[in-house]
Recover the amino acids of this structure.
């Protein structure tokens, strides 16, 4: 068999992928490499004094109990956000999949929240649930709930999870709806003829057939919860009260940009990068095996 | 647009730009990055325009760069990229970071000396310039907008609760807050913004107690935090106790809770004197601003308060000609009438003694005595080691750490003493980290 079936020159294929490679190198690998380099340095904010400290930044982090607490918190947040957002979106999608009057309108409206930027989501939820500004907060207080996310860490965490999950529902909904519509009707009808009730049909037929979509969304949602909740946290709680809503990304931001401690911030970014690579690899290797495509 | 038309248009635009950039004689541009919005932004633009109209050699170009932290980060990033602005507005807590960056900044006293501008450090209010000067009194940055903590009072609420006098001491504030709570202000007797600024930094200065060693860091970066003393612990214990029934109700780390005063929810509210603009615009009740309360059993209290706000830093690595323009601009800003104008328009404090005297002579404080409150606090006594100012590295992050610990105490997860001990310990670690990176 001839290998160079199309290309006459040996260089042409390289020349053709060069632009793509250049983009990947300049915009992805170069900054990532810089972060790795920076993580070995101790530097003041202005970059006037720099010393090479090997792994000191990493050592400091790994000796810090606070850092491990942040890792644990970030995972808890991610799973809570992914789980609540996925399950709610699935519920909505299953309902929207039925033949409904005005179904298109209903579907369109459900997609709207996705267009809202994370910081705006934060502000919207603050208007509802801020202890002194919030409309809902007033009702909660009137009902005797001691609602004060400014001091109660669990309530603040709940607030972030709610807002972050809410924003992601539309995205998940869209994919679930597409997934549901691609399931052959005949399979569902066959199950119905065999006497399976709607709930049983859902769990034994629809849910397994939907698993590729669920798997894909799980990956996307966890990555979302890891990185894109930053805007929501920054507008709603700024990490407080205490440290109860500081996630890994937020910590990178506060220590690097606000604290001017670029070395530690870079070391944290590198660790974060490793965590996400491992997480995605694990998901693809192990979870994917159980997924029926 | 065809390609030919596009090319023609581009060529014309380039030609125009070229003409614009080469006027009859060279004007030196001076970039001024700031963080002022709304009415205060108008003041900045007017100051720049007036200066540009007053002479033809220099042109000050003000640019809004986002909030204080954003502006500072933008300036630092620009410096790293080799194109820092000439003048940068930096909030007071960024002072240590800027000061540590020898070479990145040009101290104001040196600038004035080299440019041959007339400059008398004694004509400025020491309570304000002290914050931005070395321990030898050399002015490092130029104070631009300064404020201090005052206690905003809803006078109608006091009347409703039959409180005849404005509270002066903390015990009086606590008593009055309980009365106010009983009189219908059930969700918040008193509160405040900037929890660490008010309850640690100002509290310590106002009682002449150190926040940190080495004159609160003014005398060196090897300063150690000391605010877990009996006064601060007692104060936090009081707040924790009162938080339980909402006689005091925590309103967040920054100033986002200020609406609780103007809406009438919290009748006593401690925050910056620069809150005035909003109070005036929004409060539908009679109000005033009283001096911060103090603990009468602390000997010598009240001392004097310290400032908040921002100053103008001159960045390093510019040409002598550019520095001359910057120096002229700072002289222009120090002018008495101009200081009075800034004071009246923005509500920020005048920085020269002459401007303060002039505002007083004009009867500016007769109708609005509360505008003089922060000045009276700042000049209450000759500043001591503990009340001249603060200079702690990583201050923005330090405040976050202190706030975290205070929040833990208010939420009942730690005692006041444990929280402040932890705040001191964690803060010291950060100070040591800063010391390592600071340019020697």
């Amino acid at each position: 068999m001839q290998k160079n079936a199309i290309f006459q020159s040996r260089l042409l294929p390289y020349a053709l992928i060069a632009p793509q490679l250049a983009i990947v190198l300049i915009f992805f690998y170069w900054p990532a490499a810089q972060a790795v380099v920076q993580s070995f340095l101790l530097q003041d904010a202005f970059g006037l004094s720099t010393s090479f400290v090997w792994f000191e930044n990493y050592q400091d982090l790994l000796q810090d109990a606070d850092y491990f607490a942040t890792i644990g918190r970030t995972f808890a947040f991610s799973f809570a956000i992914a789980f609540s957002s996925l399950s709610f979106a699935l519920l909505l999608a299953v309902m929207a999949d039925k033949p409904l009057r005005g179904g298109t309108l209903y579907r369109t409206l459900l997609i709207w929240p996705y267009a809202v930027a994370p910081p705006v989501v934060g502000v919207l939820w603050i208007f509802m649930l801020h202890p002194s500004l919030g409309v809902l907060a007033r009702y909660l207080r009137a009902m005797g709930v001691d609602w004060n996310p400014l001091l109660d860490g669990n309530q603040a965490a709940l607030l972030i999870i709610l807002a972050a999950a809410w924003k992601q529902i539309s995205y998940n909904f869209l994919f679930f709806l597409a997934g549901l519509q691609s399931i052959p009707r005949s399979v569902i009808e066959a199950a119905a003829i065999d006497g399976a009730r709607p709930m049983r049909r859902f769990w034994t037929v629809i849910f397994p057939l939907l698993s590729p979509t669920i798997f894909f969304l799980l990956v996307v949602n966890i990555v979302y919860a890891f990185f894109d909740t930053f805007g929501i946290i920054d507008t709603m709680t700024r990490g407080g009260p205490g440290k109860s809503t500081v996630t890994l990304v937020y910590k990178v931001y506060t220590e690097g940009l606000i604290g001017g401690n670029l070395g530690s911030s870079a070391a944290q970014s590198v660790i974060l990068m490793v965590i996400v690579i491992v997480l995605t690899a694990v998901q693809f290797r192990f979870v994917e095996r159980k997924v029926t495509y | 647009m065809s390609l030919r038309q596009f090319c023609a248009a581009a060529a014309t635009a380039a030609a125009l730009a070229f003409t614009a950039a080469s006027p009859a004689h060279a004007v030196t541009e001076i970039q001024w990055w700031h963080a002022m919005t709304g009415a205060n932004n108008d003041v900045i633009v007017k100051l720049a325009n007036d200066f540009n109209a007053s002479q033809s050699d220099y042109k000050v170009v003000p640019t809004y760069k986002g909030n204080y932290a954003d502006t500072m980060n933008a300036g630092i990033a620009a410096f790293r990229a080799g194109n820092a602005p000439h003048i940068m507005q930096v909030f007071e807590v960024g002072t240590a970071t800027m000061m540590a960056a020898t070479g990145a900044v040009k101290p104001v006293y040196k600038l004035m000396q080299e440019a041959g501008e007339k400059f008398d450090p004694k004509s400025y209010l020491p309570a304000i310039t002290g914050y931005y000067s070395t321990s030898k009194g050399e002015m490092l940055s130029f104070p631009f907008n300064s404020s201090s903590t005052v206690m905003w009072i809803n006078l109608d609420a006091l009347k409703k609760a039959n409180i005849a006098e404005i509270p002066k001491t903390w015990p009086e504030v606590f008593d009055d807050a309980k009365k106010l709570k009983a009189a219908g202000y059930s969700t918040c007797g008193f509160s405040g913004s900037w929890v660490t600024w008010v309850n640690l930094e100002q509290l310590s200065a106002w009682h002449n107690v150190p926040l940190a060693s080495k004159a609160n860091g003014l005398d060196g970066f090897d300063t150690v935090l000391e605010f877990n003393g009996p006064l601060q612990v007692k104060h936090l214990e009081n707040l924790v106790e009162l938080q339980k029934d909402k006689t005091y109700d925590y309103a967040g780390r920054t100033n986002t809770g200020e609406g609780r005063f103007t809406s009438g929810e919290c009748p006593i509210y401690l925050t910056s004197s620069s809150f005035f603009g909003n109070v005036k615009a929004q409060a539908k009740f009679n109000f005033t601003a009283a001096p911060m309360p103090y603990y009468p059993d602390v000997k010598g209290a009240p001392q004097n308060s310290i400032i908040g706000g921002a100053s103008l830093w001159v960045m390093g690595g510019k040409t002598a000609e550019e520095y001359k323009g910057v120096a002229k601009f700072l002289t222009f800003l120090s002018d008495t009438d101009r200081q009075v104008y800034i004071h009246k328009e923005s509500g920020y404090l005048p920085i020269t003694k002459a401007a303060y005297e002039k505002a007083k002579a004009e009867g500016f404080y007769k109708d609005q005595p509360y505008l003089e409150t922060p000045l009276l606090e700042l000049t209450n006594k000759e500043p001591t080691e503990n009340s001249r100012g603060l200079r702690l590295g990583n201050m923005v992050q330090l405040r976050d750490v202190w706030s975290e610990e205070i929040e833990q105490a208010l939420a009942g997860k730690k005692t006041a003493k444990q929280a402040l001990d932890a705040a001191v310990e964690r803060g010291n670690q950060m100070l040591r980290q800063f010391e390592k990176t600071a340019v020697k």
